[in-house]
């Protein structure tokens, strides 16, 4: 008799899930003001300036606060800022902190903290680097006031400070922000609505966040990431459960309240459960992306990169992460599907079902001679895990010596920084994703950089593309941006900065007792949510 995965889960639930749920969960009781969540992957980097990983950005949003925040219409609103203004010549911005801001260690937030935080963030983000290139000075005026003085006007300054593209601009204490942007801040002391509970931290198992009783929210209603950050629960616990089946069984048994990545092949099972609810928090979803290593063989050759465009059957890859087609779509624009600048320029390579023969031909033209192609495989992120396995098999079918390198996501975050050959611990390809929304702004997303060593992992380099991207800050109308976007996309798909796998707007799973979840790209905030007893 063949037992299906669905039958196995039903059996597990009927048996009280005693065999599938970790003892740490079985031992816990469900307190009305404690929320237990299972996030995508494991939290291994705690410094939200150091990485683009969304789980670290979620951690940052809980512990730290921001100068500005985007509302539900993606308009920037003051958050830590009480008042701000700009000079008549549009070159000097003055910011004054609002009352009641304090660090978790009891010290007040000062302008010096903000200046140091902006400077550190600007070292590693595209938007920050643009600001610094146009800045003559960022300095404090008094304990609550600081200024940004520009060489020339930058009308998008406030938008860049508020942007959702990771790494987001979170404010840190001056002594933390004075660390180099390449050195991790581990204190986890912010001024945000939650405190990180160091005493209850269990790396690899769970992390705990407690309500910051001294946090003073803004008076405006919660709206996107803007407005008052009201915390309605006392504690939030992130349990690390890598296996989706185990996490889902724990959800059904009432052991957890929120599962960021429910098993997509069990949606009908989920929808029949009266205690559970599927909710899409980001309507545009994310685009899955293959980052290839431009520095090492075989993808230092443009022909090998072009081969990957023809090799990928997007619908096949989407099926392994989202069997229900209503949650996914193919994508051919580097600017995503849902942004105002998405376009169809230079997309002739796209073919339903892919074109493996063309891919094989291009690998041969690249002089591919059987070099090992290492695919980093995140075994604890089901979507990445499934995509990586399909990718390796697809490469092998056309004669590429593809090898999977399994690890948890934290291991990949560490390894992807290695620029060396695979023989020295380097890599060839890894799977990631970016919010479709973020891809609409090449000034702030790290995914649309092509400046070599300064670019994001994969380190693509193309001077023509960078020249076009530099013009984005100064075009004033949407029509001008659309025209510029078409030129940029033509160049990108010629040199193949990366490879797109499709778009998915997947739901999160939560118990119906949990409400008030905020829907916004990239960040999953924990304020505003409520748990009914």
Write out key terms for the chains shown.
533 residues, alpha+beta, seven-stranded mixed beta sheet, six-stranded mixed beta sheet, 19% strand, single chain, 27% helix, globular
Topology, element by element:
Layout lengths: L4 H10 L8 H4 L7 E5 L15 H10 L4 E3 L5 E3 L2 E6 L5 E6 L13 H12 L3 H8 L1 E8 L2 E6 L6 H6 L11 H4 L16 E3 L9 E6 L23 E5 L4 H9 L5 E2 L7 H5 L4 E4 L6 E7 L9 H10 L2 H8 L6 E2 L26 H10 L7 E6 L3 H16 L4 E6 L1 H7 L13 E7 L27 H8 L7 H18 L3 E6 L3 E4 L2 E2 L14 E2 L2
Parallel strand pairs: 1-10, 1-11, 15-16, 15-17
Antiparallel strand pairs: 2-3, 4-5, 5-7, 6-7, 8-9, 9-10, 11-19, 12-19, 13-17, 13-18, 14-18, 20-21
Helix pairs in contact: 4-5, 10-12, 11-13, 15-16
What is the approximate shape?
globular
Cα separation of the termini: 42 Å
Oligomer: single chain
> What percent strand?
15-25%
Question: What would your notes on this structure say?
Answer:
The protein has 533 residues and is of the alpha+beta class. It has 16 helices and 21 strands. It has helices at residues 5-14, 23-26, 54-63, 111-122, 126-133, 157-162, 174-177, 244-252, 267-271, 302-311, 314-321, 356-365, 382-397, 409-415, 463-470, 478-495, and strands spanning 34-38, 68-70, 76-78, 81-86, 92-97, 135-142, 145-150, 194-196, 206-211, 235-239, 258-259, 276-279, 286-292, 328-329, 373-378, 402-407, 429-435, 499-504, 508-511, 514-515, 530-531. The protein has a seven-stranded mixed sheet with strand order 8-9-10-1-11-19-12, covered by helices on one side. A six-stranded mixed sheet has the order 14-18-13-17-15-16. β2 and β3 (76-78) form a beta hairpin. α11 runs antiparallel to α13. The longest helix is centred in the C-terminal third of the chain and has 18 residues, at 478-495.
């Amino acid at each position: 008799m063949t037992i299906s995965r669905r039958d196995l889960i039903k059996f597990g639930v009927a048996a009280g899930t005693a065999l599938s749920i970790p003892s740490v969960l079985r031992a816990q009781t469900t307190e009305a003001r404690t929320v237990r969540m299972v996030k995508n992957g494991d939290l291994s980097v705690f410094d939200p300036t150091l990485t683009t990983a969304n789980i670290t950005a979620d951690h940052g949003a809980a512990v730290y606060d921001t100068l500005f925040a985007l509302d539900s219409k993606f308009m920037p609103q003051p958050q830590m800022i009480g008042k701000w203004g700009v000079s008549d010549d549009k070159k000097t911005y003055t910011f004054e902190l609002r009352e009641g801001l304090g660090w978790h260690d009891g010290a007040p937030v000062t302008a010096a903290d903000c200046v140091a935080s902006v400077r550190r963030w600007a070292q590693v983000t595209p938007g920050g680097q643009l600001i610094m290139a146009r800045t003559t000075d960022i300095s404090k005026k008094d304990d609550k006031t600081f200024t940004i003085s520009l060489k020339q006007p930058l009308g998008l300054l406030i938008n860049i400070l508020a942007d959702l593209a990771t790494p987001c601009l979170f404010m840190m204490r001056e002594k933390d922000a004075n660390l180099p942007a390449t050195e991790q801040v581990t204190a986890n002391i912010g001024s945000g609505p939650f405190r990180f509970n160091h005493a209850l931290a269990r790396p690899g198992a769970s992390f705990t966040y407690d309500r910051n009783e001294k946090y003073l929210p803004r008076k405006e209603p919660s709206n996107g990431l803007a407005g008052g950050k009201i915390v309605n629960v006392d504690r939030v616990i992130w349990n690390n459960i890598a296996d989706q089946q185990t996490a889902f069984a724990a959800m059904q048994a009432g052991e957890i309240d929120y599962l960021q990545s429910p098993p997509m092949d069990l949606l009908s099972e989920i929808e029949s459960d009266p205690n559970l609810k599927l909710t899409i928090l980001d309507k545009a979803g994310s685009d899955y992306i293959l980052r290839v290593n431009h520095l090492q063989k075989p993808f230092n050759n443009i022909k090998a990169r072009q081969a990957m465009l023809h090799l990928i059957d997007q619908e096949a890859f989407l099926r392994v992460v989202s069997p229900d087609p209503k949650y996914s779509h193919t994508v051919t624009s580097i600017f995503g599907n849902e942004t105002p600048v998405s376009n169809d320029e230079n997309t002739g390579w796209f073919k339903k079902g892919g074109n493996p023969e063309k891919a094989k031909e291009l690998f041969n033209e690249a002089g591919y001679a059987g070099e090992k192609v290492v695919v980093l495989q995140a075994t604890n992120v089901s979507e990445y895990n499934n995509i990586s396995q399909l990718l390796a098999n697809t490469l092998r079918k056309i004669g590429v010596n593809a090898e999977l390198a399994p690890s948890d996501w934290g291991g990949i975050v560490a390894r992807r920084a290695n620029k060396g050959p695979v023989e020295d611990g380097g890599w060839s390809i890894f799977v990631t994703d970016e919010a479709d929304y973020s891809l609409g702004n090449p000034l702030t997303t790290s995914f649309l950089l092509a400046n070599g060593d300064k670019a994001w992992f994969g380190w693509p380099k193309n001077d023509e593309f960078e020249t076009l991207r530099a013009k984005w800050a100064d075009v004033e109308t949407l029509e001008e941006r659309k025209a510029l976007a078409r030129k940029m996309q033509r160049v990108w798909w010629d040199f193949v900065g990366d490879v797109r796998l499709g778009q998915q707007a997947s739901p999160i799973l939560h118990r119906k007792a949990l409400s008030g979840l905020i829907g916004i790209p990239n960040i999953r905030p924990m304020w505003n949510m409520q748990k009914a007893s």
